[in-house]
Amino acid sequence: MKKILGIDEAGRGAVVGPLVIAGAMFYEKDIPKLKALEVRDSKELTPKKREYLENEIKRLALDFVVIRISANKIDELRETRNLNRIEMDYMADIIKTLRPDVAIIDSPEVNTEKIKNEILGKLKDLEVEIIAENYADKKYPVVSAASILAKVVRDRAIKSLEERLGEEIGVGYPSDERTIKFLKRVLDKYKGYPEFVRKSWTTSQRLKGEKSQKNLSNFLVKSKSGDEEKEGK
Known about the structure:
By secondary structure, the chain is α/β, with parallel strands linked by helices. The chain has helices spanning 31-36, 47-60, 71-77, 83-98, 112-122, 136-139, 141-165, 177-190, 202-225, and strands spanning 3-10, 19-27, 63-69, 102-106, 129-133.
């Protein structure tokens, strides 16, 4: 009986919160049950439906793994490798842990053959078939299942952060205006970025640069108006 593993992530491009990578493994005979549950790409489901399916997926799965990588950890890892390499390292760890016969991956790059070969190179003597495809979460129910597990954990992390801070964050992506407003408030409050913001992201660096420029402009205006304090004779 073949063991089929699906791997997907949530929060890859986010500037706030963790990157979550999940693996969900099933016996091949149980995959039609995922279809019967109407498991599909997490982005196509409501939050309520994802919450329901999370429990059903865990019940049906032979095994599963969900990994949360914090914003701080991502910044640290990006000092030595890019985000694709970070993802592949964790994907390989999931495959080593669950030891499937087939692992189907939602590829982080267009060059899927390259991704497949790089992951195989990390698995040493483990005998496993790797299928790496773009949009695999839309095509393979096992990858859709992994995408749901990852998305639910990511959403909970953002909700927990909102409750702790008493702030609206939005979805945590640069494209969300609520997230941009949140980052600006964070900069004003903390005079920098706390641990839940990805400081290596272009968006966070740009906003910080804009704030520095604004502060400098305010200082220059005050200086010209003679409001600054002077030292010396």
